[in-house]
C-alpha cells in the first residue's frame, strides 16, 4: 500500500476512503433560557444574577419564599419587565433583541393581572386573539373550544367583573392559550382556585405538555408542585439554590422538607403565652 505525502497509507485502488464521522446533532435549545438576570428596585435587589434553563416539554415548577424574586423573574422572562442586566432566550430567540419573534411563542398568566372586566369572558378571549393579529374566524373557533374545555360555557356571556377567583384564572388561561404558544408561563395559576376549577386547569396543562408544550409555573404549594411538575427550581434571595428533576432536588425527602433545608428557615420560639383564652 502506498503512502500519502503526510506518511499515511492511501486506500487501495477501488476502495473508497472512509467518510468523516458526521458531527453529533446539537442539543435543542431550551424552551426558556435565562442568563444573569438582575433587577433592583431602589435599595432592594429583587433578582441577583439568576441563571436557569427550562427544557422543552417540561412541566417546570419554581418555588421560593415570599420576596424570593419569583414574580420578578417571570416578569423579566416574558418581556413584562426589563432586566437591569441579563438575557432571556425563547427557543433560542433573544427576547429583548428580537421580541417580534420571541413573544408569540409565549403564553402568559401574570399574577394580579388587570383585566378588561367590563367584557364578557368570550369577548375577553376574542380580544386577546385579535390583539395578536389572528384571523377572526380562527379566534372564534378557538375561543369556543377553550370555553368548553375549561367548563366556562355558562359563564361565557357573563361579565368578567362578576367572575369568581377560579373563573378568572380559567379565563386568563384561555387568553394565554388562544394563540397556541409553545411556552406557558404562569404565576400562581392555582392560587384561590376551587378544587373543580383546579382540576380543569390541570387537565389542560397536562394535555399541553403531552403534545410538546412547556409549562413554567410558580407556586407556594409544595404538594401541588410534586403532583404536577417533573422539574423544579428553588429560588431564594433572587438566585437559584437548587434546580433539576423533581427527584434530584428532593434528594429522597418531601419537597417541603428539602425546601426548608435549602432556605435555612430559623426556628422561632417566641413566647405567645398571652394567647391563652382568658376566663375574665
Q: How does this model look, in words?
A:
- The mean pLDDT is 88.
- This protein has helices at residues 70-77, 99-102, 121-131, 136-149, 165-177, 195-210, 222-228, 246-250, 255-263; strands spanning 32-41, 44-54, 59-63, 85-90, 93-94, 106-109, 183-187, 214-218, 231-236, 239-245.
- It has one domain: P-loop containing nucleotide triphosphate hydrolases (Rossmann fold).
- The longest helix has 16 residues, at 195-210.
- By secondary structure, the protein is an alpha/beta fold.
- The strands form 2 sheets. Strands 6-7-8-3-9-10 form a 6-stranded mixed sheet, sandwiched between helices. A 4-stranded antiparallel sheet has the order 2-1-4-5.
- α5 runs parallel beside α6.
- It is globular.
Secondary structure layout plus pairing:
Blueprint: E1 32-41, E2 44-54, E3 59-63, H1 70-77, E4 85-90, E5 93-94, H2 99-102, E6 106-109, H3 121-131, H4 136-149, H5 165-177, E7 183-187, H6 195-210, E8 214-218, H7 222-228, E9 231-236, E10 239-245, H8 246-250, H9 255-263
Parallel strand pairs: 3-8, 3-9, 6-7, 7-8
Antiparallel strand pairs: 1-2, 1-4, 4-5, 9-10
Helix pairs in contact: 3-4, 3-5, 5-6
Which key features would you list for this structure?
globular, 9 helices, 31% helix, alpha/beta, 280 residues, single chain, Rossmann fold
Task: Provide a brief overview of the structure.
With 280 residues, this protein is of the alpha/beta class. The chain contains nine helices and ten strands. The protein starts with 31 loop residues before the first strand and ends in a 17-residue tail after the last helix.
Amino acid at each position: 500500500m502506498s503512502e500519502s505525502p503526510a506518511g499515511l497509507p492511501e486506500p487501495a485502488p477501488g476502495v473508497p476512503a472512509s467518510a468523516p464521522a458526521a458531527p453529533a446533532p446539537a442539543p435543542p435549545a431550551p424552551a426558556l433560557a435565562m442568563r444573569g438576570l438582575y433587577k433592583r428596585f431602589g435599595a432592594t435587589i429583587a433578582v441577583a444574577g439568576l441563571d436557569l434553563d427550562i427544557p422543552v416539554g417540561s412541566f417546570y415548577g419554581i418555588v421560593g419564599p415570599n420576596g424570593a424574586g419569583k414574580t420578578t423573574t417571570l416578569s423579566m422572562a416574558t418581556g413584562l419587565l426589563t432586566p437591569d442586566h441579563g438575557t432571556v432566550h425563547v427557543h433560542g430567540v433573544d427576547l429583548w433583541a428580537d421580541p417580534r419573534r420571541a413573544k408569540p411563542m409565549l403564553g402568559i398568566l401574570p399574577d394580579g393581572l388587570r383585566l378588561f372586566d367590563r367584557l364578557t369572558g368570550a369577548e375577553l378571549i376574542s380580544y386577546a386573539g385579535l390583539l395578536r393579529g389572528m384571523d377572526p374566524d380562527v379566534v372564534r373557533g378557538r375561543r369556543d373550544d377553550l370555553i368548553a374545555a375549561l367548563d366556562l360555557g355558562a359563564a361565557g356571556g357573563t361579565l368578567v367583573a362578576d367572575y369568581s377567583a377560579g373563573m378568572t384564572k380559567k379565563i386568563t388561561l384561555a387568553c394565554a392559550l388562544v394563540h397556541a404558544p409553545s411556552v406557558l408561563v404562569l404565576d400562581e395559576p392555582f392560587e384561590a382556585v376551587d378544587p373543580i376549577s383546579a382540576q380543569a386547569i390541570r387537565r389542560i396543562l397536562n394535555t399541553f405538555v403531552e403534545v410538546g408544550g412547556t409549562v413554567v409555573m410558580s407556586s407556594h404549594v409544595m404538594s401541588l408542585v410534586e403532583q404536577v411538575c417533573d422539574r423544579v427550581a428553588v429560588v431564594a434571595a433572587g438566585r437559584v439554590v437548587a434546580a433539576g428533576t423533581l427527584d434530584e432536588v428532593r434528594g429522597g425527602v418531601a419537597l417541603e422538607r428539602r425546601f426548608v433545608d435549602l432556605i435555612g428557615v430559623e426556628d422561632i420560639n417566641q413566647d405567645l403565652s398571652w394567647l391563652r383564652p382568658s376566663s375574665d
